[in-house]
Design goal:
The complex is a heterodimer of chains A (438) and B (391). Chain A is of the alpha/beta class and 438 residues long. Chain A is built from 18 helices and 10 strands. In chain A, the strands form 3 sheets. In chain A, strands 2-1-5-6 form a 4-stranded parallel sheet, sandwiched between helices. In chain A, strands 8-7-9-10 form a 4-stranded parallel sheet, with helices on both faces. A two-stranded antiparallel ribbon of chain A has the order 3-4. The radius of gyration of chain A is 22 Å and the shape is globular. By secondary structure, chain B is of the alpha/beta class. Classes of the chains: A alpha/beta (438), B alpha/beta (391).
């Protein structure tokens, strides 16, 4: 039975432990750098942590280390340095912040990053490939692309047993085998299939729990903020994927959220409007961005970000430990494809979320830095309006570059959006009372 | 119906070389793509494939017209509201062509060349009733599984096209298409030989027009055009001028305005380039014997050019560019990128560092297909060229 003392410890535990793990991850990277140890550079969509952790390789997620520079409000210095080096103002801010960190010898506001011994990337974002080429040239270290074919046409996804799916799966499996050989060469270690199974087991726990975490937030009031709290959870989901610590964290997070759901415990604000977030957060003003909504009682109950930036592990795919490599190939194919779908076919993702989450509004946040996420948002919004008729707001800014973030303009538009929501609600109430009076 | 029964571009026939080239330029400069409309008017179906490369032989073998979707210098009045800011122009103008009815398609295909292009397939699919597909060309051509994978992907695409064309694509039809396209590839290589060896015989914009037409008319007809005009070009008696020899890099997707190419051609000899490189992607003849789809897949993986949007460990792009520059005996290169083109802009940095190391002169610029004023750019290019000649 949970006591009051336990409860005090339980509420907010996921955020506290997530922040602690995050510091632990950075500390490990710092120690690796200091010792001149090996490290793998990877990305959130298809990190292949399952293989890299089998080889005990510390992993650097440059998307995460870059966004941290924006949250810590130093990104602009790094962007300037990368632009001085030759990069255009119009390319991905994550890339430029990372280039500048590398040019500074790995010196990052949170510590020292090790240099890449190997980089592994998928095609979930094409910029991953261009980014990997930069390290390849900077360090002369191997870059391995895992090509994961995505959805060919809306609604035509295939699954296990279909010949098209099996062709894709074989291709991914071949590449994973080639990556294992490369890791053996780079680390000088033999591939340990038993350890691999252990890592996959932890990844299974994390995927299952991540799926449950997202599902639980359909509760009213919502248990966590999908943009702020969700970003902490995502950090652990990525950096600790396939580890015992990651699995334990997510089991405990589910415990916390199930307790909150059972006891109707929401967040610290009074929930008036339930919102979906589509896009990538505005990291240069991360906390303030959320306040612009929470001040009106708006809370983000789900987001496409929590889907695609977890590499599609939100679907909870479970690896078959009896056939680990083939199963990893299938899992990567399904999960990374799903991550891509929640960017390219985000209208479908929004429709799916809207079914269960009682949505009052959808916030689209396209950003200059990222064509992967942003290119289709205007059209997806049109489609969503046609299909679901949910009020929506479209605000463009950036995830890194404060030069294109105008808080005052943003506030005006957000305020107007909420005024519209309030009016809509009043009209609905009047219409309901009118019909009851007749 | 076969591809050879419909002719869509007769204006050049029975004319002097100068007048024939004028007709070619007029076709290419027009954003109306009349050749495509003529094809449709004659009852033909059209498959539009976005940049950079598509194995057009599969479309051709189904009796459809492969149309290279490359944007156009038009205002995206209808398409604009379907896109946000910070995007390249070609996405919007390509959609505009379809939304305005200038180009009517039966099938649209995009590729994972960049994140914007993959999104384009989804956007297109939400706005048109016909299929909008992505052909997932391998992004890891270094994997031992890439050819088998691509063979299956081409076969999947064959099935999609068969359904749209409402006909079966036989191996012999595919082999025939490969033969037609091999002829076209040979003729295009010959055109580029002329550009490299005797650039004074053909103006930059004329060479561009001849290449560009390949993506908007039946290949048999294009073969006739090249087979007729190339010998006439070789017979010209123009004298070589003391001009700087330049390679243009950055035209693999969005196309620079025709007038920009014309302007560059006035200042220097454009001895090589990557304009519409997808039409020249396969660098050798594709085998005709055996499984035609496998032959096409092997050609893509083994015998292809390079661009900023393909990663292949065997083809570091800066090495490939330097090879192109040296192969054309060029004095310098123009490193261009379409505005907001992420891969193009990123590659510029790699290129500049490599060219610095090799002490090869370069000029970095950006362009947009809708540009109409070139005065400032012309002055900059002239200054660059003068520097090369006299500094």
């Amino acid at each position: 039975m949970t006591t009051l003392e336990d409860t005090n410890d339980l509420i907010g535990r996921g955020n506290r432990e997530g922040a602690a793990l995050f510091r632990e991850w950075f500390a490990e990277l710092g120690q690796t750098a200091a010792a001149g140890g090996q490290a793998a550079y990877v990305f959130v969509m298809g990190s292949t942590n399952e293989i890299l952790k089998t080889f005990d390789l510390p992993v650097v997620f440059p998307e995460i280390t870059s966004l941290q520079t924006a949250v810590r409000r130093v990104a602009h210095e790094l962007l300037d340095e990368a632009e001085d080096y030759g990069y255009s103002p119009d390319i991905c801010g994550y890339v430029k912040a990372d280039v500048a960190v590398q040019l500074r010898g790995g010196k990052h506001p949170m510590g020292q990053l090790p240099s890449p011994t190997i980089s592994v990337l998928t095609n979930a974002c094409n910029t991953y490939i261009k980014w990997g080429e930069i390290w390849e040239r900077m360090y002369g270290t191997p870059m391995f692309t895992i090509d994961v074919p995505g959805t060919r046409q809306a609604g035509t996804q295939t699954f296990s047993g279909n010949s098209d799916f099996e062709a894709d799966r074989r291709y991914v499996e071949t590449q994973l085998g080639e990556l294992i050989s490369l890791c053996e060469n780079v680390t000088g270690k033999s591939f340990d299939i038993d350890k691999f199974r252990e890592v996959l087991g932890h990844a299974n726990t994390m995927s299952r729990c991540w799926n449950r975490v997202l599902e639980l937030n359909a509760a009213r009031p919502a248990l966590f903020n999908a943009v702020t709290d969700g970003t902490i959870f995502l950090g652990v989901a990525n950096a600790f994927r396939g580890t015992e610590a990651g699995a334990l964290y997510f089991e405990r997070l589910v415990e916390e959220l199930e307790y909150k759901a059972a006891n109707n415990i929401g967040q610290t604000i009074e929930e008036k409007y339930r919102l979906l977030f589509v896009g990538v957060p505005c990291y240069p003003i991360f906390r303030r961005f959320n306040e612009l909504f929470s001040e009106w009682g708006g809370t983000f109950v789900n987001s496409t970000y929590l889907w695609f930036a977890s590499g599609g592990t939100n679907r909870g795919f479970q690896y078959d430990l009896a056939d680990p490599l083939a199963s990893l190939a299938e899992g990567m194919l399904l999960s990374v494809r799903d991550a891509m779908d929640s960017m390219f076919y985000q209208d479908v993702a929004v429709a799916e979320m809207a079914k269960d989450f009682n949505i009052d509004g959808v916030i689209y946040h396209p950003i200059k830095s990222c064509r992967t996420v942003s290119t289709g948002l205007a059209d997806g919004r049109r489609q969503m309006t046609k299909d679901l008729d949910i009020p929506s707001l479209f605000i463009e800014s950036d995830m890194m570059d404060r030069r294109v973030v105008s808080e005052a303009q943003m506030k005006n538009r957000i305020d107007a959006f909420f005024e519209g929501l309030a009016t809509r609600r009043q009209h609905a109430a009047v219409a309901t009372s009118g019909s009851q009076g007749r | 119906m076969t591809m050879t029964t419909i002719r869509v571009f007769d204006e050049w026939r029975d004319k002097s070389l100068e007048d024939a080239l004028l007709e070619c330029r007029d076709q290419v400069e027009s954003p109306e793509f009349e050749t495509v409309q003529r094809w449709r008017d004659a009852g033909g179906k059209v498959a539009g494939h976005f940049q950079v490369y598509f194995p057009e032989e599969i479309i051709h073998a189904a009796g459809m017209l492969p149309f290279k979707v490359r944007g156009a210098p038009v205002e995206p009045d209808r398409a604009d509201s379907h896109f946000g800011s910070y995007l390249c122009s070609i996405l919007k103008t390509s959609m505009e062509l379809a939304m305005s009815g200038r180009v009517e398609l039966d099938l649209f295909i995009s590729h994972p060349i960049c994140d914007a292009a993959r999104n384009l397939a989804a956007i297109w699919g939400r706005n048109f009733d016909y299929p909008s597909q992505i052909l997932y060309l391998p992004q890891n051509p270094n994997s031992a599984g890439s050819v088998e994978y691509l063979l299956h992907e081409y076969d999947r695409m064959r099935r999609v096209i068969e359904e749209v064309a409402d006909c079966q694509i036989t191996p012999s039809a595919l082999a025939n298409s490969i033969t037609v396209f091999n002829t076209n590839r040979r003729l295009l290589r010959e055109l580029y030989d002329i550009k490299r060896e005797t650039p004074w015989l053909i103006a930059a914009e004329d060479a561009y027009a001849l290449v560009s037409l390949a993506g908007m008319m039946p290949r048999e007809e294009h073969n006739e055009l090249l087979a007729t005009l190339l010998p006439m070009i070789r017979e010209r008696t123009n004298k070589a001028e003391d001009r700087v020899r330049i390679v243009f890099e950055g035209g693999f997707c969005e196309q620079p305005p025709f007038d920009l190419i014309r302007m560059l051609g006035r200042i220097c000899y454009l001895v090589d380039d990557d304009f519409l490189i997808g039409l020249r992607w396969i660098t050798q003849d594709v085998a005709v014997d055996g499984d035609p789809l496998r032959n096409l897949a092997e050609a893509y993986v083994e015998d292809s050019s390079y661009s900023s949007v393909q990663h292949d460990l065997r083809k570091p792009k800066e090495t490939m560019l330097i090879n192109r520059i040296r192969g054309a005996k060029a004095d310098a290169t123009i490193l261009a990128a379409a505005k907001m083109c992420e891969p193009g802009l990123e590659e510029q940095v790699t290129y500049t560092h490599a060219l610095d190391a090799e002490q090869i002169a370069y000029f970095v610029t950006e362009f947009e297909e809708n540009m109409t004023s070139f005065d400032s750019l012309e002055l900059q290019v002239e200054t660059f060229v003068e520097h090369l000649l006299f500094a």
